[in-house]
Amino acid sequence: MAGCKSYKPVTGQEVTANLPSTFNNNTDTATVASLPIGQFFADQRLVNLIDTALKANPDLLSALQRVEAARANLRFNASKLLPTINLAANAGVEKYGDYTQNGVGNYDTNFSNNINSDQHIPNPVPNYFLGFQSSWEVDLWGKLNNQKKAAFARFLASQSGYRLVTTALTAQIAGLYYQLLAYDTELGIIKKNIKLQEHALEIVKIQKLGGRATELAVQQFEAQLSRTKGMEYTTRQQITESENQLRFLTGSYSGKVTRDTSIMKTKLPVVIGTGVPSQMLLNRPDIRGAELELTAMNADIKAARANFFPTLTLTPYVGYNSFRANLLFDPASFTYGILGGITAPIFNRKAIKAEYERTIAEQKIAVYNYQKSILSGFQEVNNNLSGIENFNRAFEFKQQELQALNNALSVANDLYLVGRANYLEIITAQRSVLDAELELAGIKRDIFLSSVNLYQAVGGGWR
User: Fold this and answer.
1) Residues with Cβ within 8 Å of residue 137, at least 6 apart in sequence
2) Which helix (H) or strand (E) holds 340?
3) Three-state DSSP class for 415?
4) In sequence order, which residues have a C-beta less than 8 Å from that of residue 168 and are 6 or more positions away?
5) Is the domain covering 2-81+142-294+354-457 a CATH 3.40.190.10 domain?
6) pLDDT digit string (tens) for 333-379?
């Protein structure tokens, strides 16, 4: 017991003692986490997809049932603090031996002048009881109250779990939606380049007929065109898979995924700020859930420690009791009583200690999980803040690169027509433009995804 008494549970305040006070030295407490989904996302079609998923997604519906299970468990543990009351209807018979205390006593009683005929004790002796029986464990050491506290914390944790599924689902749908817009944009770019390359192929074929180009040049242009056409069908498959994944998340088998036409024209979500880390602790469902689980484990430790001490149980009863059925409801058959008992563990103390040590180990796991969720959240916020800034800069430079490549392609076409550039320069310029356009769409997608991930990282997406 001495070793058990010395353990002091770790609290959430101790875990967060070294948490930085700001993100990137920004003290502004305005946080995007406070924005509801409909205000954060500027695209109403995306909001409609999220609303549909919140009503039909199997993972979210399962999380809601886990909340109901935790609510029932809370009611169960709260009921332990109250006495149980049962309606009891008992009937039995017992034959006492002639050489037993009850047998001899009952025999002598029947000859007494102090009893009437209804009080004569038959042999065998029937026994009838109808009334209420109760049992109440007096919570001397706080075991039952701590079990209730643990159940309440886990109920709150289940609500955080539901919110966690909601934020993850919101981020997943938004990510797929913007990825789908990027694929649509890439498909449009590829189709445009196919037309340009088909036109270039026709020109080189005509030049071959005029003796100004070789069969090698024709084959090179055809290979370039085939490569681009292959990219078209790869992109179409990516679009199909993304659409099907969105249907899965929204709980549907088919139907058109209504969306914007291009990621280049779509309005970015509203990012007003990240707030401070202490706000993240309250807003992020995974961190809040981990803290509540730690609270529950601390209560479990106190409850497990109380198992070392004696238990006081009271068992009152009230009703009618008689050895004759016809006299059961006679007023003289009314009876009541109360029994009290104290039990203390002796031979099972090793089992109780093992359970106590297991609870301590699980509490330490809860501490580490809480630490991990805080570290992960802090890292995610910083990564996505940096991502928004860096991807925006990369987008600006990629636009400049694309402009220069388009100018180079135009110059290469002019020089090729007058015989001052070869076909390889045209092919290289076309491929560079295509790659730059696709990369530009990809960077734009990454800006959107960083915004969505930041919204999730600071604890938004469940309001």
Assistant:
1) 80, 144, 311, 312, 313
2) strand 334-343
3) helix
4) 456
5) no
6) 999 999 999 998 888 889 999 999 999 999 999 999 999 999 999 99
pTM: 0.83
Residue 83 above 70 pLDDT? yes
Instruction: Say whether 333 sits in a helix, a strand or coil.
Output: helix
170 close to 51: Cβ distance less than 8 angstroms: no
* Structural domain spans, the chain: 2-81+142-294+354-457, 83-138+310-343
User: pLDDT per residue over 117-129, tens digit each?
Assistant: 778 888 898 999 9
Structural class in CATH, domain 83-138+310-343: mainly beta
Alpha-carbon distance values, 446 to 22, 158, 259, 379, 454 (Å): 25, 32, 18, 18, 12
Query: Which residues have a Cβ under 8 Å from the Cβ of 320 and sit 6 or more positions away?
Result: 128, 129, 130, 131, 328, 329, 330, 333, 334, 335
Section 183-200 average pLDDT: 93
- According to DSSP H, which parts of 250-284 are helical? 277-283
Q: Running DSSP on this structure, what letter comes out for residue 307?
A: T
CA geometry: angle 385, 390, 394, nearest 5 deg? 150
Residues 6+ apart with CB under 8 A from 107: 98, 123
